[in-house]
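seq:
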Amino acid sequence: MKKIIFIFTLLCAICAHAQELRTDSIAADSLGTDSIDVESLELVPMEIVDSIDSIAAIEDTLIARPIYDTTALTDLEFRTMEWSLRWLDTTDCVVVHDTTILPDSVYKARLQAMECIIEMPFNESVRAFILRYVRRNPKQVARMMRMGEYYFPLFEETLCKYNLPYELKYLPVIESALNPTARSHAGAAGLWQFMPATGKLFGLEVNSLVDERMDPLKATDAACRFLSSMYTLYGDWNLVIAAYNCGSGNVNKAIRRSGGKRDFWSIYPFLPRETRNYVPIFIAANYAMYYGPEHGICKAPIEKTMLTDTIRTAQRMHLLQVSDNLGIDINELRRLNPQYSRDILPGGKTYTLCLPAEKAGLFIDRQDAIMAYKADSLINNRRAEIDLAKVTSITGSYRVNGVTYYTIKKGDTLGGIAKKFHCSVKQLKQWNGLKNDNIREGKKLKICK
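struct:
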C-alpha cells in the first residue's frame, strides 16, 4: 500500500457545491464583461479582425476551447454562485475588497515585481480583467486562494519535475476555477480541461468507467508534458498559453498572417477572438492570486481538515461496497475519487482508491467482505455467465433463466396450452395475470415451471 498522507483542506466542500454550478462556465464566466467593453480593448479595428476571422475557419483541434465566454453573468447566476460559496465561514476572515481603482502605475509596478519567468506586461485588457477578479469577484478569489493551498504544491512539484515556470500553476484557475470535476460544454474536463482525445494522447485513461482527466495527479503530469512539448515548438510562453487555449494550428496561422512574427502581442490581431483575451486573463489571474491581500482579499477559512490515504488495488469494486462497509458517505468517496465517473474501479490493472486515513486499515482488514458485498448487483453485471434463450422446436416456445415463453397461435386455447406444457389453466392465469380464459393470437404467455 502506497501511503500518501496530506492535509485535505477543501476538496470535500469544493466538489459538492461546484456541481450545482454550470461547470461549463465556472472560471471565466465570473469575468463577465457587462461593464467592460472588451472590443474597445483590442489593439486593431474590429473590421480588420472580422475580415481575418472570416478568411479561415477555426480548425478542429485536440485542445479544449475556454470554458468562459464574454457574456455577462445574470443576476440568477450571481445568486447561484453566492449560494455555492455559503460554506465559507467568513467569521474570522471577512473579505473586504478595495473599491477604488488604483493608478495604472501601481498595477504595472506590481506585475513587474512578480518573481516569474513568463512576461507579465500591463495594458488596458490586462487591467480590465484584473478588476474583474479583485473588484467583481473577491469571494471567488478568496476561495481559490484557499484551494490553492491544496492544489498548488502538487502543481509546483510537477512543474519543477519538467523544469517549467511555477506561474503556470494558475492556468487551472482560469480553466476550471480549481474544480477537479469541471466539465465544459465542449467536452473538456478536469482541473486542466483536457479534451478526451488530448487526454488519451498524453496517456490518460478515458472511458465509460474511468476519466483520469479528473485525477489531479495524473492530469497535472499530462498537462506539464503537453506544455513542455509546446514550449519546445514555440520557445515563447505566451504563445504556449495561447496554443493551450486554441490549438497550435490557430497559433501557426496567426504567425504566418503576421509575417512570421513569433510574439503573442505581435500576432494578437490574427488569433481567434477568445484567445486574444486568454493571455490577458492569465496575467490577471496571476496578479489576483499574488496580490489579493493588497486588495483586502484573504484566504477563505478551512471548512474541515482531513487526513487521507491511498490504497492501490487491481480488484474490481464499486464505491458503494466501500461506503456501506466502512461507514463513509458515498458523496465523500466520490469527492476523493473523482476519476471514477460511474463509481466503479474496473480492476484488471492497478487503480488507486483514496480514503480517509482512519479507514485505510479497516479497508485492508475487511477487503474480502467488501468485495463480496452486493457483488452481483453492483459489479458483476451478469459478466460471468447468462443462459441463452433456448427455442423448443416442438412447442415453438423459448426458455430464458428458467421461464418458458410461448407465443399464442391461431386456434389456441388456454386448456390446450396448459395440456401442452403439463400445467393447469389456473396456473397459466396466475403466471400471466389473466382474469378470464380469453387469449389473443400473437401475445406471449409465461410458463413458470
